[in-house]
Design goal:
31% helix, globular
Length: 357
């Protein structure tokens, strides 16, 4: 049809810039291309991403899927204007949930929603997502950018991630061989990861500390830099340990809910985990949060990882070997306790005290 409409409005005048969206796609294509791996070598821009399981080397795979977000850690990134690493958090929260089931992450998709699309900001976010995918060994095969004026303030945005992995049938975790006497190992976290940030932000606000001021617990960084330290991605070291034999029996990603909520997810009803709190290498950020916010130890344990981002349960005979593999792959490994019989009590019990000084 030809001719002018009565009011002549455009989508851009309504707040949605299609040209900016197209420019973002062009900028991120090299980032996406850098994450290619066996099974995924397509370009973004189609209606869906493709993955070839056979080309990835699987014979009889079971697919494992996970999705997650970053939570209110995003508000710190937005307020501080630092967007380069938040995408690593997005990937980490998904792929760490895959590997605990024994699955190798294969591909990742993201959803980025904003009030007004800023191409530079979007490029920085996707660069972090691509870096996270490289750390996890999975391909970024697609995503969605949604510009939604009126739903989000101009500078605000939200992220969601979706990951799919696979394991050969019969190799999924936790193992049915989990037994009393098994050893519990802890892998050090990089900080708060992506949990508890509504409480973190409340404590920061009450403390009066600005995000661009030196962190009270680490003067070498600003508070924003310290709190935006990205979630550690444990995938490659854990896959190496899993593939070394039958030693790894269970894994638990310590996210929201901390120890008391996440460890029971991999335990049968007749077993419990006894954790030596004094063995945990607690990073200074948690001591500051506990002191500044007057947060009780039990609340710390159910809100934060407190220094341990991943739990590894191994057979006693294989504990030294698995520890050596993980340390050789760059992880800080701490013996945390043992699996013991449960006699109607809690699934997680504690010995010693958490060192929050």
């Amino acid at each position: 049809m030809t001719g002018e409409t009565k009011n002549g409005l455009t989508y851009a005048q309504a707040g949605v810039d299609i040209d900016a969206g197209n420019e973002l796609v062009q900028r991120i294509k090299p980032l996406v291309r850098s994450t290619r791996r066996a099974g995924a070598d397509g370009e973004i821009g189609g209606f869906g991403g493709l993955f070839d399981l056979k080309a990835a080397g699987f014979t009889d795979p079971v697919l494992v899927a996970a999705n997650d977000g970053v939570g209110t850690k995003l508000k710190i990134a937005i307020d501080a204007g630092r967007h380069e690493t938040i995408g690593i958090d997005l990937v980490a929260m998904c792929v760490n949930d895959l590997v605990v089931q024994g699955a190798e992450p294969l591909f990742f998709l993201d959803y980025f929603a904003t009030g007004k699309l800023d191409v530079a900001q979007g490029t920085a976010i996707v660069s972090g997502i691509a870096e996270g995918c490289l750390l996890a060994g999975c391909a970024l095969i697609g995503g969605e950018t949604a510009e939604m004026p009126g739903l989000y303030a101009e500078k605000d945005y939200d992220l969601a991630g979706f990951a799919v992995g696979a394991a050969e049938r019969g190799r999924l975790l936790p193992s049915a061989e989990l037994a009393s006497g098994d050893v519990i190992l802890g892998l050090a976290s990089s900080g708060c990861h992506s949990n508890g940030y509504s409480l973190v932000r409340r404590i920061v606000e009450a403390s009066g500390t600005a995000y661009d001021a030196p962190a009270p617990f680490d003067a070498s960084k600003t508070l924003a830099e310290a709190l935006l330290e990205p979630t550690r991605i444990y995938v490659k070291p854990l896959l190496e340990a899993i593939r070394a034999g039958e030693g790894v029996k269970a894994l638990a990603h310590i996210t929201g809910g901390g120890f008391p909520e996440n460890i029971p997810r991999v335990l049968p009803e007749h077993l419990r985990a006894e954790i030596d709190l004094s063995a945990i290498p607690v990073p200074p950020v948690f001591g500051w949060l506990a002191r500044e916010g007057g947060v009780a130890t039990n609340e710390m344990l159910r809100t934060f990882n407190c220094g341990v981002g991943m739990i590894v349960v191994v057979g006693e005979a294989e504990a030294a070997e698995i520890s050596a593999i993980l340390q050789g792959a760059g992880e800080s490994v701490v013996p945390l306790g043992r699996i013991l019989p449960r006699e109607g009590g809690d699934a997680v019990t504690y010995d010693g005290e958490l060192r929050l000084a």
